[in-house]
Specification:
Elements: H1 7-29, H2 35-40, H3 47-58, H4 61-74, H5 79-103, H6 108-115, H7 119-151, H8 156-206, H9 211-214, H10 227-237, H11 250-264, H12 268-271, H13 280-298, H14 301-316, H15 326-334, E1 337-339, E2 398-400, H16 405-412, H17 417-455, H18 461-484, H19 490-514, H20 520-544, H21 563-580, H22 587-597
Antiparallel strand pairs: 1-2
Helix pairs in contact: 1-8, 1-17, 3-8, 3-13, 4-7, 4-14, 4-17, 4-19, 5-11, 5-13, 5-19, 6-7, 7-8, 7-17, 7-18, 7-19, 7-20, 8-17, 8-18, 10-14, 11-19, 11-21, 14-16, 16-17, 17-18, 19-20, 19-21, 20-21
Length: 603
């Protein structure tokens, strides 16, 4: 069997296998039977390690795989993800992390339940945490499936199942303690995997080893032509808008960026990381280290996007299919890239517009092959894969899945096989690290916040841990199904999760910290109004009536990706109105709020 595998597959299998062995080894070494270690790693993680683990938890498949891919296709419009996620982490570090650490419990629903002195508030927070986490984890499992389907040539479903098994093993065995130190290793893998090809390609295109500078530099041997100017010209020649131009309205850019920023500050799997350190001071230092580690990848992603887009256009567009590089035909086999020769001339015409089939708004179109991979009947007269139910509207003949751009980048640039395998391992590390954190949030929300704090307060520590592990198993199954049947691109799905977090958790946490007057009635009403409005808007335009998903039909020109900002405003308004006409919180709760906000030398 192995003799039939390509060199890329063997390198990928070796590097991915070693990284998985490392993760499993750490999980076995850090296994725990203590509740505090399962939930918050015993609150004893060093600040640097916690910063690295937070960065891995934060830089999901959306950051590693999809962010550069979406910037490659959207150009300047894709920068909303870069600005929103980076700015959001700063907001989290300054406004929330130290105060939540000083509160000193296990989870966000813990804070909401105690601050708003209500089991119902806790229950609403539990539901929000689970809903947001499942939406987010769908993107991670989608990323796992993309990697496995290409590099190991397994079915996407099987790839997701393999990822589920790995995550379940180290998340359930070691809890937060195991996840934390696994994420430290995963950060090292993913950042090395992201930077190595970026540096190689920057040198190849611009003779500059620093990708961030190479993106703004001149092309090698071009007599002073800048890379971005060349990319603008290539895009316009094909009928696209200039790469550095934007098509989104100003208000939509603002609302998406704001939703991503405040959604960051409301993501339960990131917030819980600040409970794993000893002191408030360590929480602040963790935030500093995490931001530094995150910045390495985030400042490089736009360069990777520009490099990948330039190389793809120059190696594929207006080329005879017989002359197309092997990487294109290999990715064709995965079903994530496809060409339909509409005019039967054997030339790949890549132009603006939908390639084939019907695409409504941002709906995903995956090509389906007619016949098996090695079946000659599945190929057209020029050797291309045949598609089922194709249509011939428009002139664009090429379909490229946005999520493949980072993974295919080394192959497009003709880098060594070991670099290709390394990138695959990095993509899996990014997806699995975040998936593990999200699954832990779901399991603790069920076992600790719902079962222990609402249903059965007298449950033993052993029983609570068993319930958490059972909940994690159920969460893995549901997460796998969401990965097999994803509702969109990785970054797009994750953007929905951020919008849901922005409209539900962020106002409740901010008002809980900075307003002694905010009471349970206001907070509960705000959370319900925010998440129901945001979820309803997203579900309507993405699933119920996707044909209406155009800016002409959006409220105030706000896309589903940005509607979380409006949901957040509705949350604040509803909470403030209800709070004004209901009783203030008890004296002891107001004293707790005051205590959280006052710094202590010993903290």
């Amino acid at each position: 069997m192995f003799l039939a595998w390509s060199a890329i597959q063997l390198w990928t299998l070796g590097i991915v296998g070693l990284s998985f062995a490392l993760y499993i080894g750490i999980a076995i070494y850090t296994r725990t039977s203590k509740r505090s270690e399962f939930y918050v790693a015993g609150a004893g993680v060093p600040a640097v390690a916690n910063g690295m683990a937070t960065a891995a938890d934060w830089m999901s498949a959306a950051s590693f795989i999809s962010m550069a891919g979406i910037i490659s296709f959207a150009g300047r419009d894709g920068s909303v993800y870069l600005m929103g996620w980076t700015g959001g982490y700063v907001l989290l570090a300054l406004l929330l992390a130290p105060y939540l650490r000083k509160f000193g419990q296990f989870t966000v629903p813990d804070f909401v339940g105690d601050r708003y002195y209500s089991w119902f508030a806790r229950l609403v927070a539990v539901c929000c945490a689970i809903f947001v986490s499942f939406t987010y984890v769908a993107g991670q499992m989608r990323g796992v499936g993309v990697v496995f389907s290409r590099f190991l040539e397994v079915d996407v479903t099987m790839g997701v199942i393999i990822g589920m098994a790995i995550v379940f093993f180290y998340a359930v065995l070691g809890g937060m303690k195991g996840i934390t130190y696994t994420q430290v290793a995963q950060y090292c893998v993913l950042i090395f995997a992201f930077m190595v090809p970026a540096i190689f390609i920057s040198i190849m295109l611009t003779n500059n080893p620093i990708p961030q500078l190479g993106m703004g530099g001149t092309l090698s041997g071009s007599d002073g032509v800048y890379l971005l100017d060349r990319l603008d010209g290539l895009s316009e020649e094909l009928g696209f808008a200039a790469y550095t131009a934007g098509s989104r309205s100003t208000q939509d850019v603002f609302f998406i960026t704001m939703a991503l920023m405040v959604g960051t500050a409301g993501l339960p799997h990131v917030i819980i990381r600040f409970y794993t350190v000893k002191r408030v001071k360590d929480a602040r230092m963790s935030a500093f280290w995490a931001l530094l580690f995150i910045a390495i990848l985030y400042t490089t992603a736009p360069a990777v996007a520009a490099f990948a887009r330039t190389n793809m256009i120059t190696t594929v567009s207006n080329k005879a299919y017989a002359e197309i590089p092997q990487w294109f035909k290999t990715w064709e086999d995965s079903g994530l890239i496809a060409w339909m020769d509409k005019n039967n001339d054997g030339i790949v015409q890549y132009t603006a517009g939908a390639p084939f089939g019907t695409v409504s708004g941002d709906s995903k179109l995956l090509p389906h092959f007619a016949g098996a991979t090695d079946d000659a009947a599945a190929r057209g007269p020029h050797g291309q894969r045949l598609l089922t139910n194709p249509t011939s509207e428009g002139t664009n003949e090429l379909y490229v899945d946005r999520d493949i751009m980072v993974l295919a980048n080394p192959e497009i640039a003709n880098l060594p096989n070991w670099v290709v395998g390394l990138v695959a391992a990095g993509g899996l590390a990014a997806a699995l690290s975040t998936a593990a954190g999200l699954l832990l949030v779901i399991s603790t929300a069920v076992a600790h916040d719902f079962l222990k704090r609402v249903i059965k307060p007298d449950i033993s520590e052993k029983g609570e841990l068993l319930a958490a592990r059972v909940a994690a198993f159920g969460a893995v199954i549901i997460a796998g199904l969401l990965g097999i049947f994803p509702p969109g691109w990785v970054a797009q799905v994750v953007a929905f999760a951020f919008g849901l977090a922005a409209s539900s958790f962020f106002p409740a946490i901010i008002m809980g910290i900075f307003s002694k007057r905010m009471n349970r009635e206001g907070a509960i009403t705000g959370m319900l109004v925010g998440i129901l409005f945001t979820a309803g808007y997203i579900v309507y335009f993405k699933f119920i009536n996707p044909a209406a998903n155009t800016k002409d039909n959006w409220w105030f020109g706000i896309s589903p990706e940005g509607i979380g900002t409006l949901g957040m405003l509705f949350n604040f308004i509803a909470a403030a109105i209800v709070c004004k006409f209901t009783a203030p919180p008890p004296t002891e709760v107001q004293a707790m709020v005051e205590r959280i906000r006052v710094p202590e030398e010993s903290a």
